[in-house]
Amino acid sequence: MIGTGPDWLLAIPPLLVVLVGIAFVPFPSRRLGHGLAAATLGIVAVWTLFVPDGTGPTTTFLGLEVVLVHVDDASRLVGLALSAFGALAVGYTYLVGTDDRHLLLALAYVGASLWTVFVGDWLGLALGWELMAVASTLLVWYCGGEAVRAGYRYALVHAVGGGLLLVGVALHWVAVGPSPTALQYDGSGVSAGLPAIAVGLAVGVNAALIGVHVWLPRTYAAPHVGTSVILSAYTTKVAVYAAYRAFPDGNLALATVGAAMTVYGAAYALAQKDMRKLLAYHIQAQVGYMLAGIGLGSALGVAGGFGHLFNNVLYKGLLFMIAGFVVVRTGKNELDGFGALGRATPLLFLSFLVAALSITGVPGFNGFVTKGMILDAAAEADATLLEALLLAGAVGTFVSFMKFGYYAFLEGERAAVRDLSVGDAAVALPIAGACLLLGLYYPALFAILPATDAWSTDPYSNAHLYKAVVLAGGSLVAFVAVKPLFGRVAGGRDVDVVRDPFVFWGTRALTGALERAFARTDSWVARAGWETVTAVRNPDAMIAAVLPRSLEARYRDRLERTPGKSGLKTSVGMTVALAFAALAVALVVALTF
């Protein structure tokens, strides 16, 4: 069934379908506009299932051939996750009250993401990368309030990341030999050395690597809850996809950093009281698992990394939806600010339990399957440190979602809020059902993973089940042990505490130095220009000033004997030429020193 459609499907770029959806947005009926937009993303999801592997049409841009459609196992899986979730996310934004302009920007963001995934060359990917940054920034800014400030930081960080990607692509083009098809994917990734470093850093920015990640919790917690749901699925996942394109054979540094991210993100999630900040830090942690699998480079690791990407889009998107439903009902973001929701909202609580059990990797849920694949890949590679970090991150994930569930649904007085409506349930429960289905009937998940004939695994082996029980039991003990500390910790102090002042004062110092250098240069140029004008008006004095003393006396003596005539016979043109030459020398000296 998968990939068995006709070849003409390759001639339809998914972005074109999304643009059709954008055309429906101005409809007078808000419900109809959102419904048609969701339907177009549903059509893209169906397209990803049936379109055959291969490449579609090309176009020429900047003298290079851009492949508009490139379908393989990796792009199909990521495209399916992004488009299917996008259809449900559009429905969610309708339920939480976003307007048509918000929908327009959201569709532009989703469309740019799908372009980036399905394009078949580095130039096209870089263009999509920039379009994603612009669309997502505008989406955040549109929400107003605190989101504007967060969006400004977001824009600055992604401008740097986009610049690094363009530099890396340009260096790669030079390294492979300039030609119209030089940037098309050939399965070898980017060239080693500076191209790989630049592209790797660019991927790191969008994937929220440690040190360049603070944009993630700040931005995803600030805007409208509908915006947070949209943001949760795209930028970081496309970055994981780009990491695979850059390093298809793996990269140990990438795997190690990814494993460290699982611990770092989970640790900072534990410190959060704001629901969406907690979930945002867990995006970083979960992306760490994906990068670890891809960085290991084995068939099992890559399949596990992409499978975890697919699953994460589902359960993390559902968790952001649940947090949004809570915010809409209570008006509060803090976990300890609204009482126990569990008895008042059984459907909401059930949806949370499914999503939480999925992200923590409990047997029977989709996260258990793919997290186990990544751990197995680390064990097969004898990467003991990586495996230890991944397990530590798993414990942190368990404990943080025990915290989320306890404070949001169980602790405190019963909250008087309404449960999920029929429309709410129509969005949330299908995602919860998919998390459970792919955990129990995992062959359906395996069918869309890359290189299915190159790896094998038994998710429900005794070893996997034993490890899951030990992790769950150890995490429960850890939760009981650290629970008294939760009331004393509110957010923690992340790297921005040091980085932001450094950037602010460093930029201020650099700006001051540049201003002073410009002022000196301006002064030197003005003085040189004035002296040049003076010399043109009084060439006798200029010539006398530059002559050696022995010649200066003879020159002045001749001036006295022949008043009104200079000692050197020059034409007007020569005088002007000398003046310009003097000015040029002065400019060079001023700009050089």
Automatic annotation (TrEMBL):
State one Pfam family annotation: Proton_antipo_M
Choose one Gene Ontology CC annotation of this protein and give it: plasma membrane
Entry keywords, A to Z: Cell membrane, Membrane, Oxidoreductase, Transmembrane, Transmembrane helix
Q: Where in the cell is it found?
A: Cell membrane
Q: How does it sit in the membrane?
A: Multi-pass membrane protein
Q: NADH:quinone oxidoreductase/Mrp antiporter transmembrane domain: which residues?
A: 121-389
Q: What is its main location?
A: membrane
InterPro entries from the xrefs?
ComplexI-like_HydComp (IPR052175), ND/Mrp_TM (IPR001750)
Task: Give TM segment ranges.
Answer: 6-25, 32-50, 77-96, 103-120, 126-143, 155-176, 196-216, 228-247, 253-271, 283-303, 309-328, 348-369, 389-410, 422-444, 464-482, 571-591
Keyword Transmembrane helix in annotation: yes
GO: which molecular function terms?
oxidoreductase activity
Query: Mind telling me which PANTHER family this protein's record contains?
Result: HYDROGENASE-4 COMPONENT F, NADH-UBIQUINONE_PLASTOQUINONE
**Protein name stated in the entry:** Na(+)/H(+) antiporter subunit D
Give the originating organism. Natronococcus pandeyae
